[in-house]
Design goal:
5 helices; globular; Alpha-Beta Plaits; 7 strands; RRM domain-containing protein; 3-stranded antiparallel sheet; 4-stranded antiparallel sheet; alpha+beta
Length: 141
Amino acid sequence: MTSNDLSTKWSVRIVPVPVALNYIRLAQELRLPISRVYIPKNFNHSTRYAWINDFISEEDANEFVRQWSGALIQGQKIKCIASSSKSEQIGSFCSSQESLASSSGPTKESKAQRANFNTLTTAPSSFQHPQKSSKLLSVNN
């Protein structure tokens, strides 16, 4: 069942996310703008996770899940789960993010620099994509 309701946005939850991996590096690895990646603070020692936000359709979110589930991040196999989020939930999420951002005080210039960050100039990837890994294994056998 697909949802094309314009008031519904889709997100993907990624678990587990290694402690040493921040949202900037995760965005680089996934080749996404950093504005789409959110890693919540972990307050109760549960498994660390990340949200990839702003998928415009369920199909887009599910395609991301198919592409990245099973990939290795720093030696840990990740699981991706798509979920919908209504626009009012997104609005409350954004306002809480904005209040956190305003208290930390980044300038508009630094936000612009982050948004235009070039992922091609970063260090080699620590991800091992499951589809690419299986192709490499079949070539060697």
